[in-house]
UniProtKB/TrEMBL annotation:
Residues 5-245 form the Carbohydrate kinase FGGY N-terminal domain. It comes from the Bacteria. Residues 326-438 form the Carbohydrate kinase FGGY C-terminal domain. The lineage of its organism: Bacteria, Bacillati, Actinomycetota, Actinomycetes, Pseudonocardiales. It comes from Amycolatopsis suaedae. Keywords: Carbohydrate metabolism, Kinase, Transferase, Xylose metabolism. GO terms for molecular function: kinase activity. Belongs to the FGGY kinase family. This is Carbohydrate kinase. Transmembrane segments: none annotated.
């Protein structure tokens, strides 16, 4: 390939651009924060123009460092939420984040009335407050004028793509939740109607075909300082992009993303599901038409660790040290990690889900509280992978695995070694890897997988964590009837 592909990962709080060499090693990168507005009533919003500005900043910075031309731009980023735009790509209102909790009551009503179960029967995906269905329904009732002004109800990545290329489309991975029939990879009219949104069907862009390549238009080229007509790919979004970038290749293999939230995914070619089972999780379509990721993206993760650090007056950098100061089992302290204002979405959906600590005494230390919370997140991961069907190798990425001790806890609780990729930017890696294939110049997957290392299980902790996991499930079963919105 003549030149390099710039991978851009548009995260919730950070946008990062990375350029890789032919061996998948990063040779240039840049990052800049995005602004996330946390508002009363569980509302979480972002400004599209500010997000576009972060993309411009990091792409220009990386491009200026290269001593060879830019061959293409590969976009990935956060999924879910609701990014409403007009025909020119301008936001008709601030974007509603996937973290948004204003539609909690909508989801609770749908769970009670059977709507969530009906959608799950058609799509294999659960509905949660920050997904398209709930947010569209909420705005349809409380802010219909915004939907009336919009031409497209999309996601972050396709909102950026529209601004750079003028194209209105969506990657099939983003479209997977909540309305896509995974068998046909088309929208389920029955699922849309079940949510009472048939009259808003026109806002849903049709998924782009596999391997779609777009081009920078004049406006996009001017923004980025790159040539008009430059190839651009857009997707998959960050969860499947991370799986691709980490090295997930075989059915049964999985990836744990310990980020702001905890994403657990398993590669599968079987899109059958228990249509009367718990309506949670999702089937995420990948660039390969026969491959799907059974995803359980829980709302627990490093955001909870940030919270406990703030509460206890400790620095995040101290987590590893504190984890070594409390033994496996946290001296009897146990936790449920559900700290998100919008509850939980996998492996069950409950907008009222809330956290708890148990087993406290006057002898409980800060280290015990931190370890109990970290162990509870690992138990949540095990619960998710049990539902997703993990049977092969497990990979991991995200800020959480920067803590060696927390990664060891994940391995011990899950009972399997964890492969940590050599380069942490797996989302951008997956986007660039996908772009190479779409442009007809694929990268060597085996070469890109080099440099990884494996965190092994410590057998001495097995009994403690087996008992801890049983206690976690029992505490969860006892808490669920008590949660209220």
């Amino acid at each position: 390939m003549a030149g390099r592909i710039i991978g851009v990962d548009i995260g919730t709080s950070l946008t990062k651009a990375v350029v890789f060499d032919d061996a998948g090693v990063s040779i240039a990168d840049a990052c800049t924060p995005s602004t996330v507005h946390h508002l009363p009533g569980g509302r979480v919003e972002q400004d599209l123009d500010q997000v576009i500005g972060t993309v411009v900043t990091v792409v220009r910075e990386v491009a200026a460092r290269l001593d060879e031309p830019v061959a293409a731009l590969a976009l990935t980023g956060q999924g879910d939420g609701l990014w409403l735009r007009d025909a020119g790509g301008a936001a008709v209102r601030p974007a509603l984040s996937w973290l948004d909790g204003r539609a909690n009551s909508v989801v609770a009503k749908w769970q009670a009335s059977g709507v969530s179960q009906e959608v799950f029967r058609h799509t294999g995906s659960g509905i949660f407050p920050g997904c398209h269905a709930a947010l569209l329904s909420y705005l349809d009732e409380h802010e219909p004028e915004s939907l009336d002004r919009a031409v497209v109800a999309g996601y972050c990545v396709d909102a950026v793509l529209q601004r750079l290329t003028g194209e209105i489309t969506v990657d099939v991975s983003d479209a997977s939740l909540p309305f896509l029939d995974p068998v046909t990879r088309t929208y389920s009219a029955a699922a849309i109607e079940a949510c009472g949104l048939g009259h808003r069907r026109g806002l849903l862009a049709e998924p782009a075909p596999a391997g779609a390549v777009f081009r920078l238009n004049a406006a996009g080229a001017a923004l980025l300082g790159l040539p008009e007509g430059l190839p651009v790919t857009a997707g998959p979004f960050d969860l499947p992009a991370s799986a691709i970038g980490a090295g997930v290749r075989e059915p049964g293999d999985g990836i744990l993303t310990a980020g702001t939230t905890l994403a657990c995914q398993v590669l599968t070619r079987d899109v059958s599901w228990d249509r009367d089972g718990e309506p949670a999780g999702m089937f995420l379509a990948t660039p390969s038409p026969e491959d799907y990721l059974r995803a359980m993206p829980a709302m627990v993760g490093t955001a909870g660790i940030d919270w406990v650090c703030g509460l206890l007056g400790i620095r995040v950098e101290q987590i590893g040290e504190l984890l070594t100061q409390s033994p496996p089992g946290a001296n009897g302290v146990r936790a449920l990690p559900f700290l998100s204002a919008s509850g939980e979405r996998a492996p069950f959906v409950d907008a009222g889900a809330r956290a708890q600590f148990a087993g406290l005494s006057l002898e409980t230390t800060r280290a015990d509280l931190v370890r109990a919370l970290c162990e509870s997140v690992a138990y949540a991961a095990r619960h998710c992978f049990a539902s997703a069907g993990l049977s092969g190798r497990l990979y991991a990425c995200g800020g959480g695995v920067r803590s060696a001790e927390w990664t060891r806890i994940f391995a011990d609780v899950l009972g399997t070694g964890i492969v940590i990729p050599g380069d942490p930017g797996v989302g951008a890696r997956g986007a660039v890897f996908t772009a190479g294939a779409a442009l007809g110049e694929p990268f060597d997957a085996e070469v890109w997988a080099r440099g990884a290392h494996t965190v092994a299980v410590r057998p001495d902790n097995a009994e403690t964590y087996e008992r801890g996991y049983r206690d976690y499930l029992a505490a969860l079963d006892g808490a669920r009837p008590l949660w209220r919105i």
